[in-house]
Automatic annotation (TrEMBL):
GO MF assignments: calcium ion binding; calcium-dependent phospholipid binding; phosphatidylcholine binding; phosphatidylethanolamine binding; phosphatidylinositol binding
Gene3D superfamilies documented for this protein: C2 domain
Compositionally biased region (Polar residues): 594-606
Chief site of localization: membrane
Record protein name field: Extended synaptotagmin-3
InterPro entries referenced in this protein's UniProt entry, alphabetically: C2_dom, C2_domain_sf, C2C_KIAA1228, Ext_Synaptotagmin_C2A, Ext_Synaptotagmin_C2B, Extended_Synaptotagmin, SMP_LBD, Synaptotagmin_SMP
Organism, as annotated: Cyprinus carpio
Amino acid sequence: TISVGLSVKDVNQLIMEFLMFMMRAIVLCYPVYLTGSLGLSISWILLSMLVWTMWKNNRRGKDQRIDTAIDFLENEKDVISTELRAMNMPAWIHFTDVEKAAWINKILQQAWPFFGMYMEKLLIENIQPSVRSSSPHLKTFTFTKVHMGQKAPTITGVRVYTHELETREVILDLNIMNYECVCFFFQLQGMLRVILEPLIGQAPLVGGVTMFFIRRPALQVNWTGMTNVLDGPGLSHLSESAIVDVIASLMVLPNRMCFPLIDQVKVDQMKFPLPRGIVRVHVLEARDLVAKDTFMMGLVKGKSDPYTVLRVGNKQFKTKTIKETLNPRWNEVYEFVIHEAPGQELELELYDEDTDADDFLGRYSLDCGDVRKDREIDEWFTLEDIETGQIHMKLQWFSLHTNPALLQEESFDGLACAMLAVYLDSASNLPVSIHVHLKDCQPIITQTQTNDPNSYVEFSIDQQSQKSKVVFASKDPTYDECFTFFVHSVNNQVLNVEVKEHEKKSSLGKLTLPLVRLLNVSDMTMDQRFLLERSGANSQIKMKAVLRILTLEKQEAKVVTPPDRPEPPTPVPAQPVQSVPKEKVPVSSVPLSRTQTVPAPMPSSVSSYNELQAEYTPYRRSTFVGTEQLRSSPSTPSHMRRFDSHSLLSENSIDSSRFDLTDNASYPEAILNHQGSFGQIQLTLRYATLRKRLIVIVSGCKDLFSCSESGSDTYVRMYLLPDQTWKHRKRTSVKKKTVNPVFNETFEFAVSMEEARTRKLDVAIKNNKMLYKRERKEIGMVWIDMSQMDLIKGSTEWYELTLPGLKKTN
């Protein structure tokens, strides 16, 4: 009879397992019975068990070696990366885009003694006075000797960013480690970012150098000599953290070390640029996490109590803890200010919350530059350094804008709609502290001492609060710091500023700044001295407040024509015409509709040295301090398009005249209304066999379109298609105020005879006066097919000019 709850299949399985157990017991016990029945010694059984154990271990080792070899073949890249990481190899071995830096290390080693001279001067002239003024007990503090050691730091790899950036800056990431000083040896590992900006057209080619660590560097100190006492268990951690704190206060984001190389670049402009943007992180859910909670001494596995820690730079957030689950759902949102992208990383770690030590559940890191590039990422990320687990996140990149029309203050679950950046410069005429000394605790004043206050500034917007550093013994303190705040309601929130005394926490002055005032000022920026309330008669604070609207942008357009945008039809090659009446002249291209236009010119200009001396304007992004900002006017047309441009200094970059500036870039109104011919151009084409050059002589033009009453300022631009790069561009000089210019200029193209017959000559006549207008410069174009020409003999012909997209009426 089959018991209730068990099927026939289950009963049969139980019977088979029982029979197998009995057979194994008989097989194991029979040798013991046989040995006893034959009267043999127990040593034979022990010897047999030893041989069997050795064979078992050998078999297991062989299986492990085979499995390891198979795993290596299947995951060769991951295995090698793991082994190299454990060996602490240089960065250029791990990453293909990181280059060796042996030549930089040689330069550093040669220049290191002179760097020691610079540091000695810096410590004695700048640091020593600051230390003395920080406390009355340190008034005699002196640097008696400064020695930076004989060995320079070692750079293990260099990564250079150019394509991801503006064309007037270069970013280098230097992986630094190992440094030796006289009193100690320490190993410093970190990535030092060096920014060369702006790139200029005069010596020294770079306007300034900025250096900083994107993340806090790792430090390990080995004290030697008399300082070995600091290597004790209690002091070792304190000394290392103190050194890292000093480095972080100088060179870890958002702090920067800046060196301007020209007078027009100011240190404060380089030190406090506006952030690149904002990253909004939606931590949605996770799945297949590892179960860390166990019961019955590990025999029974339970689940986990997971939570997530998110970190960008010094900013860190922690999600709520979801109890007893391996597939938690958080649905929480966090926002981070991004100063450098690419560079700064979103670091994410998952833990299982326990009463003692939390168990690790995996980690993941993502470069914020990827979010900036894709604008929005919504996917599952596989956790690292753990067996299983994935986390689902949605990341969005928000750009900073000055257009008030983009402001949206509707409720988004408490998410920010704007960002406020505050640059704190200094304060002046703060009230002094009065200390009264009493005699024998009697209310008779015997001595009154007046001291300058030890002050700091506290900023707050609702629950957000930040404090500046403390400046000791000064009624005119200089703070030189910057702060950022997320704004949820521009119309309702207020920035509260209060100057306080360090010891007593008493107020030295207050300021209230409604954020709505920034909406109505130029560039949403207020840079001035503010009069403090409840303070001295002339107590002021100097600061700069910058408001920016957060906008989620879509993917930027590429230079290449998008798939959904049809390319303009190819013009029919032009044919030479004789000096006959114009009604018999063939048209050189098929007329196009006015919505299908040829590429419009992009004017390029080179700043003169006098212009550079007049005023330096930050170009990369707005700064907290300094000059008038480069900004987009609210009157900018909404149809403007932005393209990823090539540098004009590159010989292989496509010429700027081949790019569209706007979707609806149009010809001047006079050209659109023009009836009749656009003129003719006389060209001579022949091939020099001995020199292997195609010779093009531009003789002149006649009857060109007149852009003004005095004529046009014309020049001729040529390409030998399909070459359209900057170095292949040919251009004549400009002939001013004429419709019948005479050029008589010769140009050469280095091509073979066979290749020249397969090419087409693209010729355009342009008006130079349209350089600063958003209008097309072409006043005539022609394509010349050389496949049917006798280039050895050569030909001189007049070619009819047309404009693709405009219909000509003869």
